[in-house]
Sequence to fold (83 residues):
Amino acid sequence: MVHKCIRVLGLLKDHQFELEVVENLLAQRWWQRGKRGKWHERRALILMTYCGKGADAMKRAMEAVVEALDDDDTHIGKPKHTS
Fold:
């Protein structure tokens, strides 16, 4: 249920709290592991868009992307079938 609140927080433009919730979800490793890719994606988007425009904000966003790539539970996706 907590991961569903992320969308609502985004709609309410409470991006700081949304970021906190996403980071708490990413901090745990046992629940909803299949959603981790979406959480990483949303975290990077929040950091790049709503958490400042300076070099420090971009550095933090890049670190988030690197963490996402290093996360073993982040799935690359399913291959498309060609006929």
Summary: The chain has one domain: 2-70. The helical segments are 2-11, 15-27, 36-50, 55-70. The mean pLDDT is 79. The chain has four helices and no strands.
